[in-house]
């Protein structure tokens, strides 16, 4: 479905001319003229306006009554006054009514200092209260869910949380009970509000009625610093703001990016942050590995970095080309490139992989990554039809589930779901059904589609379906993969594949993939394994993983947490950074390069991943020529032809799709069709 065209009109607000898109809401149009109209209930992400709070009343020439700015579309020549005495009197009255039952507990309220009600009261309120009667009282706080507390006395009935539950997440769990001044937000029969996106209502609440229980009473706004980064807990790569106090991440909030997350964040990304901190070391049962560990006398013991790196390098050097490396999806592209170089150039081994699904022919990788076939996240919303193929968005990349729901709800997008059996057995029927909806078609598929012995055949069937629908010729149509790991696409493009060098170019030698590495270790054909932020038990079957780790002579792990498998089998464990501590780049499934920026210092003796690889390589007599994180990024951009000329400043805080840059032409030139 084509994006709605926007015609620019001119209106007058408080005597100044403002240009804005026609039919945009007056509240949004006013911002373009540097005029603020106060709101509580209005939030464009929730859908159409409801005009519940009446805070945005304005005077419009030619209309006798005051109008709500949040629900009034702007027209050419409209004259608006937001500063008249009539408007000020109305806004003061609304604030006074809202404060009648609102407790004046700002000093102990978690929202204090970053509260829209506070700001609007100071800016548009009367400054005094004429109300002397007792306020209403509720039992507080109540556990709305295991992670959210509700203080019903503070609620101003803006409907934001209820609208999110009913119109965005569509879990329909939150409702307004009772009537009038006795109304309050609750769930049916008091059941806990447990849903994949429940935490978003904390961000939406304009007062302190809904608060995060893990963050409650942990810090005040003047105690904290905010840092922007990208969540790497799933392939959705949502943009986040990390709230930091005393070098600890206390809170994670959504950082609005329309082309990535639409301003939402799943509960895993929001509430998993306590595990990112921690202290101690894995050998003593700490939450985080923060010191190098070496197996001595059958147990892992804390050692110095010098000894751990020397022992790891010596063991890898003895293994030589009988070494292998597996890179997890949380690694940056820079780390992946450097590790692949360490294996190939330092140890003479091409056994390096970042895919658990198995090896695909290089020509398949080329076709699936063709810039002409790449859909974007926003295409999911505006497409005529979306086919979800062998994927479960709510588990694989939760935020994409909200985008699909938005497309169906707002734009009438046709949503189909199919399995690999449907793809192989009735492709013509799928193509016909999709074609009936229109030309803009997006196929959302998961990496598992290409797993197993039939993986390559499944990939070819997917490409044939795309060709039959002529997706490469239609703007707003294409393929969008959900990789198994957060940076799955970026690692492939960095050359972390057994049959590809950086830039998806042909490598000199072909090595074993993840399944082959595990099998070779189990059979004794390989002797050393380097696990870089990877869990072999999740990459292959538990039985094969256990046999592989048992038979391996050396297991060097670069990990954040000490799993049972590493505790039992690792020879050397090197502490890894969490994403809040990293610096580097990752690639979104749609090809958008995004920056990871360190928000907190490394706990304990943790070192940067690129630094660990560089120091290991130096002990193998390989100079990777990397002294800083930016040098590692520069090496990555130079190694991948279609990243050519890219800089960290160009990526910035919003990222950039490499397909939209002039260097994308190098993809067709460097990569054969």
Walk me through the structure.
The protein is of the alpha/beta class. The mean pLDDT is 93. The strands form eight sheets. It has a seven-stranded mixed beta sheet with strand order 15-14-26-25-24-16-17, sandwiched between helices. A five-stranded mixed beta sheet has the order 2-1-5-3-4. A four-stranded parallel beta sheet has the order 19-18-20-21. The protein contains 24 helices and 29 strands. It folds into four domains: 8-83, Ubiquitin-like (UB roll), CATH 3.10.20.740; 106-212, 2-Layer Sandwich (Alpha-Beta Plaits); 293-348 and 487-666, Rossmann fold; 362-482, 3-Layer(aba) Sandwich (Dimethylsulfoxide Reductase, domain 2), CATH 3.40.228.
Keywords:
Alpha-Beta Plaits, five-stranded mixed sheet, alpha/beta, 673 residues
Summarize the structure.
The chain is built from 24 helices and 29 strands.
Largest sheet: 7 strands, mixed
The overall pLDDT average reads 93
The CATH topology of the largest domain is Rossmann fold
Oligomeric state of this protein: single chain
Q: What low-confidence regions span 5 or more consecutive residues with pLDDT below 50?
A: none
- How far apart the termini lie comes to 29 Å
As a percent range, the share of strand residues is: 15-25%
The first-level CATH class name of the largest domain: Alpha Beta
Question: Helical residue percent?
Answer: 25-40%
Structural class: alpha/beta
Tell me the number of strands. 29
Number of helices: 24
Number of domains: 4
User: What global shape is seen?
Assistant: globular
CATH architecture title of the largest domain = 3-Layer(aba) Sandwich
